[in-house]
Amino acid sequence: MLLDLIKNRKSVREYTEQKISHEDLKKILEAGYYAPSWMNVQPWKFIAVENQETKNLLCELSSHQPHVKNASALIICVADKNSWSKKEFGEVLASRGIGEEGREKIFSIPMFYPVLLGEDKVLMRTVEQVTYAVSYMMLEAKSLGIDSCIIGALQNEATVIKNPELFEKVNEKLGLTKDDVIITIITLGYAKEDTPTVKQRKDFDKVVYFETIKNHLN
Ligand SMILES: Cc1cc2nc3c(=O)[nH]c(=O)nc-3n(C[C@H](O)[C@H](O)[C@H](O)COP(=O)(O)O)c2cc1C
Description:
9 helices, alpha+beta, globular, four-stranded antiparallel β-sheet
Protein backbone atom coordinates (compact mmCIF):
# COMPACT_ATOMS: atom_id res chain seq x y z
CA MET A 1 0.00 0.00 0.00
CA LEU A 2 1.27 3.45 -0.82
CA LEU A 3 0.38 4.68 2.67
CA ASP A 4 2.72 2.07 4.22
CA LEU A 5 5.51 3.31 2.00
CA ILE A 6 4.77 6.90 3.02
CA LYS A 7 4.76 5.97 6.71
CA ASN A 8 8.03 4.08 6.36
CA ARG A 9 9.94 6.73 4.45
CA LYS A 10 12.24 8.81 6.57
CA SER A 11 15.06 11.25 5.96
CA VAL A 12 18.27 9.27 5.85
CA ARG A 13 21.54 11.14 6.21
CA GLU A 14 24.12 8.34 6.41
CA TYR A 15 24.75 6.06 3.48
CA THR A 16 26.78 2.95 2.67
CA GLU A 17 29.32 2.89 -0.16
CA GLN A 18 26.86 0.96 -2.36
CA LYS A 19 26.10 2.77 -5.60
CA ILE A 20 22.62 3.19 -6.99
CA SER A 21 22.23 1.60 -10.41
CA HIS A 22 21.54 3.85 -13.38
CA GLU A 23 18.41 1.83 -14.02
CA ASP A 24 17.05 2.79 -10.59
CA LEU A 25 18.24 6.38 -10.90
CA LYS A 26 16.34 6.67 -14.17
CA LYS A 27 13.16 5.28 -12.59
CA ILE A 28 13.40 7.89 -9.82
CA LEU A 29 13.86 10.67 -12.38
CA GLU A 30 10.92 9.35 -14.38
CA ALA A 31 8.71 9.64 -11.28
CA GLY A 32 9.51 13.37 -11.18
CA TYR A 33 9.04 13.71 -14.91
CA TYR A 34 5.49 12.37 -14.65
CA ALA A 35 4.48 14.58 -11.70
CA PRO A 36 1.49 16.90 -12.14
CA SER A 37 1.86 20.64 -12.63
CA TRP A 38 -0.19 23.76 -13.14
CA MET A 39 -1.79 23.44 -16.59
CA ASN A 40 1.01 20.98 -17.29
CA VAL A 41 3.59 23.80 -17.40
CA GLN A 42 6.35 21.45 -16.08
CA PRO A 43 8.62 24.28 -14.90
CA TRP A 44 11.48 22.09 -13.83
CA LYS A 45 14.79 20.50 -14.66
CA PHE A 46 16.21 17.53 -12.78
CA ILE A 47 19.96 17.02 -12.86
CA ALA A 48 21.36 13.71 -11.66
CA VAL A 49 24.85 14.12 -10.19
CA GLU A 50 27.35 11.39 -9.32
CA ASN A 51 30.60 13.27 -9.91
CA GLN A 52 32.42 13.68 -6.58
CA GLU A 53 33.80 17.13 -7.37
CA THR A 54 30.31 18.43 -8.15
CA LYS A 55 28.92 16.78 -5.00
CA ASN A 56 31.61 18.51 -2.94
CA LEU A 57 30.69 21.90 -4.40
CA LEU A 58 27.00 21.29 -3.70
CA CYS A 59 27.87 20.21 -0.16
CA GLU A 60 29.59 23.57 0.34
CA LEU A 61 26.54 25.34 -1.08
CA SER A 62 24.34 23.44 1.41
CA SER A 63 26.01 24.62 4.62
CA HIS A 64 28.51 21.74 4.42
CA GLN A 65 25.88 19.09 5.18
CA PRO A 66 27.92 15.87 4.92
CA HIS A 67 25.16 13.72 3.38
CA VAL A 68 25.36 15.86 0.24
CA LYS A 69 28.87 14.73 -0.55
CA ASN A 70 28.45 11.22 0.89
CA ALA A 71 25.32 10.28 -1.05
CA SER A 72 25.61 7.83 -3.93
CA ALA A 73 23.79 10.28 -6.18
CA LEU A 74 22.06 13.63 -6.00
CA ILE A 75 19.12 14.98 -7.91
CA ILE A 76 19.29 18.73 -8.26
CA CYS A 77 15.72 19.98 -8.59
CA VAL A 78 15.69 23.21 -10.51
CA ALA A 79 12.82 25.66 -10.94
CA ASP A 80 12.84 26.89 -14.54
CA LYS A 81 11.20 30.33 -14.55
CA ASN A 82 11.47 30.52 -18.33
CA SER A 83 8.83 27.78 -18.58
CA TRP A 84 6.26 30.51 -17.98
CA SER A 85 7.36 32.52 -21.04
CA LYS A 86 4.64 32.93 -23.64
CA LYS A 87 6.72 30.85 -26.03
CA GLU A 88 7.31 27.83 -23.76
CA PHE A 89 4.03 27.87 -21.87
CA GLY A 90 2.25 28.62 -25.17
CA GLU A 91 3.71 25.48 -26.72
CA VAL A 92 2.43 23.38 -23.80
CA LEU A 93 -1.02 24.95 -24.09
CA ALA A 94 -1.06 24.48 -27.87
CA SER A 95 -0.16 20.80 -27.41
CA ARG A 96 -3.29 20.51 -25.27
CA GLY A 97 -5.34 21.86 -28.18
CA ILE A 98 -5.72 25.40 -26.82
CA GLY A 99 -5.78 27.75 -29.82
CA GLU A 100 -4.18 31.19 -30.11
CA GLU A 101 -7.25 33.03 -28.84
CA GLY A 102 -7.48 30.76 -25.80
CA ARG A 103 -3.79 31.16 -25.08
CA GLU A 104 -4.00 34.96 -25.24
CA LYS A 105 -6.96 34.82 -22.87
CA ILE A 106 -4.93 32.74 -20.40
CA PHE A 107 -1.97 35.13 -20.70
CA SER A 108 -4.22 38.01 -19.72
CA ILE A 109 -5.55 36.49 -16.48
CA PRO A 110 -3.30 36.90 -13.39
CA MET A 111 -4.77 33.80 -11.72
CA PHE A 112 -3.64 31.65 -14.66
CA TYR A 113 -0.53 33.54 -15.67
CA PRO A 114 1.63 34.50 -12.65
CA VAL A 115 4.03 36.49 -14.85
CA LEU A 116 1.43 39.28 -14.65
CA LEU A 117 1.91 39.32 -10.86
CA GLY A 118 5.68 39.79 -10.85
CA GLU A 119 8.94 37.90 -10.29
CA ASP A 120 8.21 36.80 -6.72
CA LYS A 121 4.89 35.24 -7.63
CA VAL A 122 6.47 33.43 -10.57
CA LEU A 123 9.13 31.98 -8.28
CA MET A 124 6.52 31.04 -5.67
CA ARG A 125 4.35 29.26 -8.23
CA THR A 126 7.34 27.53 -9.78
CA VAL A 127 8.60 26.24 -6.44
CA GLU A 128 5.10 24.97 -5.74
CA GLN A 129 5.24 22.77 -8.86
CA VAL A 130 8.73 21.43 -8.21
CA THR A 131 7.84 20.18 -4.74
CA TYR A 132 5.31 17.72 -6.14
CA ALA A 133 7.99 16.21 -8.35
CA VAL A 134 10.34 16.01 -5.35
CA SER A 135 7.77 13.99 -3.38
CA TYR A 136 7.18 11.65 -6.29
CA MET A 137 10.91 11.00 -6.66
CA MET A 138 11.46 10.33 -2.96
CA LEU A 139 8.61 7.84 -2.90
CA GLU A 140 9.78 6.05 -6.03
CA ALA A 141 13.25 5.85 -4.45
CA LYS A 142 11.78 4.34 -1.28
CA SER A 143 9.82 1.80 -3.32
CA LEU A 144 13.15 0.70 -4.81
CA GLY A 145 14.72 0.37 -1.33
CA ILE A 146 16.70 3.59 -1.77
CA ASP A 147 16.73 6.18 0.99
CA SER A 148 16.87 9.90 0.58
CA CYS A 149 16.90 13.30 2.21
CA ILE A 150 15.68 16.65 0.96
CA ILE A 151 18.19 19.46 1.20
CA GLY A 152 16.52 22.84 1.41
CA ALA A 153 19.16 24.62 3.48
CA LEU A 154 21.16 25.82 0.52
CA GLN A 155 22.18 29.15 -0.91
CA ASN A 156 19.69 30.26 -3.57
CA GLU A 157 17.46 33.15 -4.62
CA ALA A 158 14.79 32.07 -2.13
CA THR A 159 17.15 31.97 0.87
CA VAL A 160 20.39 33.91 0.82
CA ILE A 161 23.45 33.93 -1.41
CA LYS A 162 26.28 34.26 1.11
CA ASN A 163 29.06 33.26 -1.25
CA PRO A 164 28.36 34.61 -4.77
CA GLU A 165 31.58 33.11 -6.13
CA LEU A 166 30.63 29.60 -5.02
CA PHE A 167 27.07 30.17 -6.22
CA GLU A 168 28.33 31.14 -9.69
CA LYS A 169 30.70 28.18 -9.77
CA VAL A 170 27.85 25.75 -9.02
CA ASN A 171 25.59 27.34 -11.64
CA GLU A 172 28.34 27.10 -14.21
CA LYS A 173 29.20 23.51 -13.33
CA LEU A 174 25.54 22.51 -13.72
CA GLY A 175 25.10 24.61 -16.87
CA LEU A 176 22.22 26.61 -15.40
CA THR A 177 20.80 29.76 -17.00
CA LYS A 178 19.68 32.96 -15.26
CA ASP A 179 16.11 31.60 -15.19
CA ASP A 180 17.09 28.44 -13.34
CA VAL A 181 16.84 28.36 -9.55
CA ILE A 182 18.04 25.39 -7.53
CA ILE A 183 15.19 24.66 -5.13
CA THR A 184 16.09 21.37 -3.60
CA ILE A 185 18.75 18.72 -3.68
CA ILE A 186 17.64 15.14 -3.10
CA THR A 187 20.39 12.98 -1.63
CA LEU A 188 20.08 9.30 -2.52
CA GLY A 189 21.75 6.19 -1.21
CA TYR A 190 21.42 3.02 0.83
CA ALA A 191 20.97 3.63 4.56
CA LYS A 192 24.01 2.79 6.67
CA GLU A 193 21.85 1.55 9.51
CA ASP A 194 18.50 -0.16 9.30
CA THR A 195 16.89 1.82 12.12
CA PRO A 196 13.12 1.71 12.69
CA THR A 197 11.14 4.61 11.27
CA VAL A 198 9.77 6.79 14.04
CA LYS A 199 7.47 9.47 12.75
CA GLN A 200 7.57 12.57 14.88
CA ARG A 201 4.52 14.51 13.85
CA LYS A 202 2.09 16.92 15.48
CA ASP A 203 -1.07 15.23 16.75
CA PHE A 204 -3.29 14.11 13.88
CA ASP A 205 -6.19 16.10 15.37
CA LYS A 206 -4.11 19.25 15.42
CA VAL A 207 -3.81 19.34 11.64
CA VAL A 208 -6.63 17.19 10.20
CA TYR A 209 -10.32 18.14 10.41
CA PHE A 210 -13.67 17.12 9.00
CA GLU A 211 -15.82 19.75 7.26
CA THR A 212 -14.69 22.53 9.63
CA ILE A 213 -11.82 23.05 12.06
CA LYS A 214 -14.39 22.56 14.81
CA ASN A 215 -14.68 18.83 13.99
CA HIS A 216 -12.14 16.06 14.05
CA LEU A 217 -12.14 13.01 11.84
CA ASN A 218 -13.32 9.91 13.73
C1 LIG B 1 11.59 21.75 2.18
C2 LIG B 1 12.45 20.84 3.04
C3 LIG B 1 13.75 21.18 3.31
C4 LIG B 1 14.56 20.35 4.08
N1 LIG B 1 15.88 20.67 4.25
C5 LIG B 1 16.70 19.80 4.89
C6 LIG B 1 18.10 20.05 4.95
O1 LIG B 1 18.62 21.05 4.45
N2 LIG B 1 18.88 19.12 5.55
C7 LIG B 1 18.37 17.97 6.11
O2 LIG B 1 19.15 17.16 6.61
N3 LIG B 1 17.04 17.72 6.09
C8 LIG B 1 16.19 18.59 5.48
N4 LIG B 1 14.85 18.32 5.37
C9 LIG B 1 14.30 17.08 5.97
C10 LIG B 1 13.40 17.37 7.19
O3 LIG B 1 14.19 17.76 8.28
C11 LIG B 1 12.57 16.11 7.49
O4 LIG B 1 11.77 15.80 6.38
C12 LIG B 1 11.65 16.30 8.71
O5 LIG B 1 12.41 16.46 9.87
C13 LIG B 1 10.72 15.11 8.90
O6 LIG B 1 11.44 13.90 9.04
P1 LIG B 1 11.24 12.68 8.04
O7 LIG B 1 11.58 13.15 6.65
O8 LIG B 1 12.22 11.64 8.52
O9 LIG B 1 9.83 12.21 8.11
C14 LIG B 1 14.02 19.15 4.62
C15 LIG B 1 12.69 18.82 4.35
C16 LIG B 1 11.92 19.64 3.56
C17 LIG B 1 10.51 19.21 3.22
